[in-house]
Inverse folding.
């Protein structure tokens, strides 16, 4: 099939590469000339495991190419995917200007049938707006061209995006006619070998499904984080609680890890946007709104523990951070807890020494050169001379440090474990003051907040 993808970010580039890999002819188009120039040179602008190889293979085979030429891109694909960003507007609702701009562009250039598929995460009713934009752009040219619209939300996880796309749990397809359904069934047939994972539904339900999935997952995290706050205060160990409640198959072990709050480009903005959609319709979505409030509060937990340890004064302290990306296996810093922590530390007069395996460039891009930020070549260098070490992102490389050696490198051996990946008693043996998230004094932690 001939496919065009508008937007070569995390979603568009992965979608384009994977669809080319399954035999389609794909054109990826972006307005970011620098990004397209880099891709054309074979450089991958984001870090995503396995992506580089797939892109190179499919460019070499002639099934994948990149352009900034919208007319060329619209002429290429019978299927036109919209995979551009939908950042939060001032009131938290999704800003649709990029999505509707693409609809306008497709309408300005299309000369025969096109199926326009929204893959970006968009509020319920957006496909109607896309349809109206296409219709008005076509009408303005005084021509008649047939088209369908569809919703095909994306569920990939950054860090495992290729695998998620190639072996999806489900493919959600929202359509309002059989022609559109057939195109999308045919497109996704190679991903349905084992059993049919495609769930065809009406467009509005497909749009809502994406938000429902993200809000459900975000709710599990926020609830667990709230329970960890209770555990801290009653001197219980949330890790023992987690193991026991996860054994109940109605609850399960996924997404019940307490931590320092969720970040990334999806959960925070999607939770906010769904709450805003409900509010606009006169319904106060109480659970959804509190998921965001709990998460914002949780993002200060690392700073609170440091402030507690240092008696409320962090002036002149040097704090080492392990991990900056919002989660492992990505360089994405959007809404990352590390940003909240660094900004709080700087405001309190502390200095930061940090290391992340992939997100250092992104950190430099966001914060630039500053005296109170030192980006280090590895975790040990970051910890050297530090007054405390904070594990923010649970990259594999941080899992089993030599705590004795680490204690020797630091000015004072203080460890705040933002993901509960270390065993408190083991860390304490090396002389560390250990602070986990919701872990008890009985297991070697000193967690009671002032
Ligand atoms: N990142 C994820 O893990 C993920 C997962 C599922 C869904 N989503 C959703 O997918 C959408 C895209 O997310 P992302 O993380 O890939 O975004 P991104 O910001 O990484 O990339 C968006 C790209 O679109 C380009 N763009 C903007 N306007 C354009 C236009 N008119 N024509 C062509 N290109 C244009 C931008 O230059 C940018 O390269 C969002 O709605 C997001 O919520 C993201």
């Amino acid at each position: 099939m001939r496919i065009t993808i508008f937007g070569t970010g995390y979603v568009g580039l992965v979608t384009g590469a994977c669809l080319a890999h399954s035999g389609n002819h794909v054109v990826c188009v972006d307005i970011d000339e620098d990004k397209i120039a880099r891709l054309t040179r074979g450089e991958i602008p984001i870090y995503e495991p396995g992506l580089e190889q797939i892109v190179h293979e499919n460019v070499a085979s002639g099934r994948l190419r990149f352009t900034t030429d919208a007319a060329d891109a619209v002429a290429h694909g019978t299927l036109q995917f919209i995979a551009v960003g939908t950042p939060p507007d001032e009131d938290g609702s999704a800003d649709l200007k990029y999505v509707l701009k693409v609809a306008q562009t497709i309408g300005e250039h299309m000369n025969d049938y096109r199926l326009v598929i929204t893959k970006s995460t968009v509020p319920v009713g957006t496909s109607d707006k896309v349809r109206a934009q296409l219709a008005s752009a076509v009408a303005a040219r005084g021509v008649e061209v047939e088209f369908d619209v569809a919703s095909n939300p994306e569920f990939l996880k950054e860090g495992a995006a290729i695998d998620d796309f190639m072996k999806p749990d489900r493919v959600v397809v929202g359509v309002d006619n059989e022609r559109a359904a057939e195109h999308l069934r045919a497109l996704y047939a190679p991903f349905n070998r084992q059993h049919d994972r495609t769930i065809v539904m009406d467009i509005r339900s497909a749009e809502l499904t994406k938000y429902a999935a993200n809000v459900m997952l975000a709710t599990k995290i926020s609830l667990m984080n709230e329970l960890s706050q209770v555990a801290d205060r009653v001197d219980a160990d949330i890790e023992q609680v987690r193991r026991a409640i996860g054994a109940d198959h109605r609850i399960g072990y996924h997404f019940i890890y307490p931590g320092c709050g969720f970040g990334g480009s999806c959960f925070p903005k999607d939770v906010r946007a769904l709450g805003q959609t409900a509010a606009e319709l006169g319904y106060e979505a109480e659970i959804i709104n509190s998921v965001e409030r709990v998460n914002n509060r949780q993002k200060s937990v690392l700073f609170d523990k440091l402030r507690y340890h240092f008696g409320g004064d962090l002036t002149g302290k040097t704090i080492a951070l392990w991990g900056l990306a919002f989660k492992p296996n990505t360089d994405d810093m959007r809404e990352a807890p590390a940003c909240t922590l660094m900004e709080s530390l700087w405001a309190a007069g502390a200095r930061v020494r940090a290391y992340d395996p992939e997100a250092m460039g992104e950190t430099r891009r966001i914060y630039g050169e500053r005296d109170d930020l030192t980006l280090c070549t590895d975790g040990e260098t970051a910890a050297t001379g530090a007054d405390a070490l904070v594990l923010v992102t649970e990259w594999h490389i941080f899992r089993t440090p030599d705590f004795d050696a680490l204690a020797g490198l630091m000015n004072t051996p203080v460890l705040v474990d933002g993901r509960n990946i270390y065993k408190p008693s083991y860390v304490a043996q090396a002389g560390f003051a250990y602070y986990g998230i919701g872990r008890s004094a009985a297991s070697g932690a000193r967690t009671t907040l002032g």
